[in-house]
Amino acid sequence: MPHVRSWIDVPAGSDFTIYNLPYGAFRKSDGPPRLGVAIGTKVLDLHAAAAAGLFDDVCDRGALQAPLLNAFLALGRPTWKAVRLRLAALLRDDDSSDGRLRALDHTKFFTEQRDVRMTMPVYVGDYVDFYSSLEHATNLGKLFRPNSEPLLPNWRHIPIGYHGRSSTIVVDGTPVVRPSGQRKPPNADVPVFGPSTRLDIELEIGFITGRGNRMGEPIPIGDAREHIFGLVLVNDWSARDIQAWEYQPLGPFLGKSFATTISPWIVTLDALDPFRTASPSQDPAPLPYLQTAERWAYDIRLAVELQTEKMRAAGFAPKTVSQTNFKEMYWTMAQQLAHASVNGTLIRPGDLYASGTISGKTAENFGSFIEMTWNGSKPLQLPDGETRAFLEDGDEVTLRGWCEAGDFRVGFGKASGRIVAAR
Amino acid sequence: MPHVRSWIDVPAGSDFTIYNLPYGAFRKSDGPPRLGVAIGTKVLDLHAAAAAGLFDDVCDRGALQAPLLNAFLALGRPTWKAVRLRLAALLRDDDSSDGRLRALDHTKFFTEQRDVRMTMPVYVGDYVDFYSSLEHATNLGKLFRPNSEPLLPNWRHIPIGYHGRSSTIVVDGTPVVRPSGQRKPPNADVPVFGPSTRLDIELEIGFITGRGNRMGEPIPIGDAREHIFGLVLVNDWSARDIQAWEYQPLGPFLGKSFATTISPWIVTLDALDPFRTASPSQDPAPLPYLQTAERWAYDIRLAVELQTEKMRAAGFAPKTVSQTNFKEMYWTMAQQLAHASVNGTLIRPGDLYASGTISGKTAENFGSFIEMTWNGSKPLQLPDGETRAFLEDGDEVTLRGWCEAGDFRVGFGKASGRIVAAR
User: Which of B87, B81, B26 is nearest to B413 (CA)?
Assistant: First the structure.
């Protein structure tokens, strides 16, 4: 990578370098949501930049002045690429820069991120959650079905997935109310009702779709890149007690549908391109519609942080309880999209397809508490002397993700949520 | 019921009597979708009627002039009731009628239903499919898990359900492309790929939600009536071979997501009120949040018709292959809504909650071909000498539903779809 600087100050270690340029939606005080691009500690107001005519030759102005990205996503990869190149030209500080933005009154175009509130960047029509980590699927099989083979016979043939709830996808910072529901204690004959006592997270990455297909026409795996706009961090909050009692035979429902938190900035596939790598080999080889010679793994480092209410009060920093990497996933995003659409279902701009929990090989790399604490049997030790098996009220969980090569960094920011007592 | 007539001619046996007044969306030639109300063979143009000021004192004009019902649904039951009363007053032919509509130029307000194309009446944010017929759940358990107890231990405690795909919900008349996917033949070691060879239907009824809740706040069962706007017929098309191979452990996905057909007219809960009845008793008693003294079963007669391509060509009428009744469902709509929201998930105006397949006690009352033909082992005999285990290309399936008491009829019209060869 050539070394490129922006004339906007980007602090060392920032997720939002000029190589990144992720898209989001933000509100200043009580104004309506506007689309923006993160750079350093600031957000560039795309609505204002479009109004200044800076994209008129590459993109419909209305798509950049909407409160959500869906119309922009529908325009497809050539437009995404042209707008990205224009943004880089407007923000870079060298001979090839486009000086028009720099010449304007910056106070109209830039706001500090700390002064805005991020909102949902897209309207999610359909949300699908996959189950694509071999380690996670094996772990959950052992924990949920202790008396049988952990990995079911279909797992190595199908990127297993199911539909989740769209209405409760929220951005970073939204409180999560502890859900109530039915659970059946291990030795009880009948279920009881009450707040979940086994509240958990799932560390995931999700992709947001672009243009989409026509109903009845699958998306071939070779076309996946045309249809995947970008990625976000996803916390698929999970009430394990509710899930365990309800999930057979039709899958998870209320154990998941109460909240799903995403990071507010969509990091584009183009920004992640330098971090593409080979994915783990698959044995047996999947069916031809799931085969591609393209490299579809991405070297994205991931971390889960936990800070309890007592830690916060006593001044303890959040503790990193797990670290892993997205590149180890067995099934790739291209395979997930080709599979999800192979029956001709309609993929729309703004759909969210999450990876499933990203777990590595050992407890320090697991993407959920039920795995890290092995069903609660090995509680985590926290710096203030507390322990945790599952989440308690006041706990705050933060997911982080970033790519790094020397001083070349592209990051996701964070997806954070604090548990509020059941109503 | 007092006998009420409309000054619009309503043929004997019509589903769309003045007692019904269901809502839908329609297009005339290439015009944009408009909201309408069915009466006899006609559709009343709500956009035009609102423009004439006929609802200004009871409802925001914009909600009736939108292309979808979601804004109207968000207004809540008092408005729904006031608009329904006004519609009845405008259309009835007696001393209590409101003569304003009758005095206007009818050609501006009424179109024959055969001259319009119905479109989706609502934007469906989230679609949930339940599994609430005891007979169906028992049958499917026997067929999908022949070596274990057919009804799982949770079934009599939880209205089991899962999220389906919103993007492929289509109205009556939309062709259904046969889906392709993975299936594993019974004695094969590995799956094969190709068009489904076990394409099926599921006869269901779904409810459409109104105002909705706030995220984190359950809807108590006693409030269900405030949140349920009306009902439609639902055909949850199912590829049994794809479903059987994919559905463990996370539930059905591609076996269902290719298409779901609904009837285009939403029959309101108010119109169905005279047909309320007691639902089957539940043993064991459900947890308190699922208990209500209100009667929540509805006496709705249902039929499934099949017409193959050869039958069509030879002039054979569609054959009724099953008849059943919605009133026998074990779990009620009120229980389904209270359960779905008990974890605080967000219910939005226009969500669709389908009942699950409605099966009676014997093969003539089963709501799917896999049940009617007992996994294909007892094919149906058709009047032209053909037989059917599962659906073949060119087959057309039509669901019908109606309530009747003497000459007092409230019907759903139909939800029909014809199978098109796989692409």
Answer: B26
Average of per-residue pLDDT across A12-19: 96
Query: Whole-number mean pLDDT of chain B?
Result: 96
Last residue of a domain, one of B63, B90, B119: B119
| Residues near A420 by beta carbon (within 8 Å), at least 6 away in sequence | A175, A176, A177, A178, A393, B216
Position A30 confidence tier, pLDDT thresholds 50, 70, 90: confident
Q: What is the pLDDT of residues A53-90, one digit of tens each?
A: 999 999 999 999 999 999 999 999 999 999 999 999 99
Are B59 and B136 contained in the same domain? Answer: no
Interchain contact A147–B (C-beta under 8 A): no
Whether residues B212 and B104 share a domain: the answer is no
Report the candidate in A332, A250, A268 with the shortest Cα–Cα distance to residue A294: A332
Phi, psi dihedral angles at B27 (to 5 degrees): -125, 135
Question: For the domain that residue B111 is a member of, what is the CATH number?
Answer: 2.30.30.230
Q: Specify whether B269 is located in the same domain as B368.
A: yes
Q: How confident is the model at residue A414 (pLDDT cuts 50, 70, 90)?
A: very high
Residue A14 maps to a domain: no
Residue A415, φ and ψ in degrees, nearest 5: -125, 105
Asked whether residue A1 carries a pLDDT value surpassing 60, the answer given is no
> Mapping DSSP to helix (H, G, I), strand (E, B) and coil, where does residue B244 land?
helix
The CATH number of the domain where A320 resides is what? 3.90.850.10
List A residues 149-178 in contact with B (Cβ-Cβ < 8 A).
Answer: 152-154, 157-158, 160-168, 170, 177
Residue A8 inside a domain? The answer is: no
Q: What is the DSSP letter of A314?
A: H
Q: How far apart are CA B117 and CA B30, in angstroms?
A: 10
- Is residue A6 one of the residues assigned to a domain? no
Final residue before a domain boundary, out of A67, A86, A119:
A119
* Confidence check: pLDDT of A125 > 70: yes
Per-residue pLDDT at A3: 79
Q: Judge if B232 and B316 occupy the same domain.
A: yes
Question: Where are any strands of DSSP class E within A16-99?
Answer: 23-28, 34-39, 42-45
pTM for this entry: 0.97
Listed residue (B410, B405, B398) closest to B172, CA to CA: B398
Which tens digit of pLDDT belongs to each residue from B186-216?
Answer: 899 999 999 999 999 999 999 999 999 999 9
Same domain, B111 and B149: no
Integer Cα distance of B5 and B28 in angstroms:
27
Lowest-confidence region among A93-97, A112-116, A190-194, A262-266? A93-97
Portion of chain A with pLDDT greater than 70, in percent? 100
Based on the domain organization, do A108 and A157 belong to the same domain?
Answer: no
Does A343 sit within 8 Å of B180, measured CB to CB? yes
Structural domains counted in chain A: 2
Report pLDDT for B253: 98
B298 with B160, same domain: the answer is: yes
Question: Catalytic annotation on B136?
Answer: yes
List strands edge to edge, sheet with A319-325. Answer: A176-177, A408-420, A396-405, A301-307, A319-325
A16 within a domain of the structure (yes/no) = no
Antiparallel, parallel or unpaired: β A408-420 and A176-177: parallel
Candidates A356, A414, A283; CA nearest to A128 is: A356
pLDDT of residue B407: 76
Q: Which of residues 336-365 of B touch A (CB under 8 A)?
A: 339-340, 342-348, 351
**Domain residues for A356?**
127-420
Q: Do β-strands A169-171 and A260-262 pair in parallel, antiparallel, or remain unpaired?
A: parallel
Same domain membership, residue A354 and residue A305: yes
Q: Chain A contacts of B348, Cβ < 8 Å?
A: 167
A chain contacts of residue B152, beta-carbon cutoff 8 Å: 248-249
